[in-house]
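Cross-check.
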Amino acid sequence: MELKVLTFMLGDEEFAIDIMKVDRVKEYEKTTKLPNSLDFVEGIINLMGEVIPIINLRKKFMLQDFDEKEKTKIIVIRFENEKKMGFLVDDVKEVITLSGDQIDQTPEYSGESSQFLLGVAKLEDRMILILDVEKILKKEEKIEISNMVK
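Predicted model, tokenized:
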């Protein structure tokens, strides 16, 4: 089994998502804030006529917020239900292909964060946390966000 992933940075940590879930990567764009939204919802953008909610992954993962948002990137994700959402990240690195023997199952001791991890890729000089984009947001959060951008 091989998995082609897009790698990106959040602070000092490297993450990856299945390339088949990625619609596009774009430069930072100022968002329009939505009142009474979840604290990790950065706002919304207009992407070719489509309203896309932007999720601040640093806030979602309870990391320190970005110092300079203008230097960030937005990874636009396409979910199974064809809805799109943008993930605000520090930087996008590369597309790599991982073989099955490079991917370990999520450690059982990782608690709540293990819900949205597919596994951990072990490469020669680094480890990459592979995210399951469908599980980053809880069901209630997805519903609340989709209700904001109807």
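Helices lie at 57-60, 133-136, 139-148. The first strand starts at residue 2 and ends at 10. Passed to J.P. for a second look.
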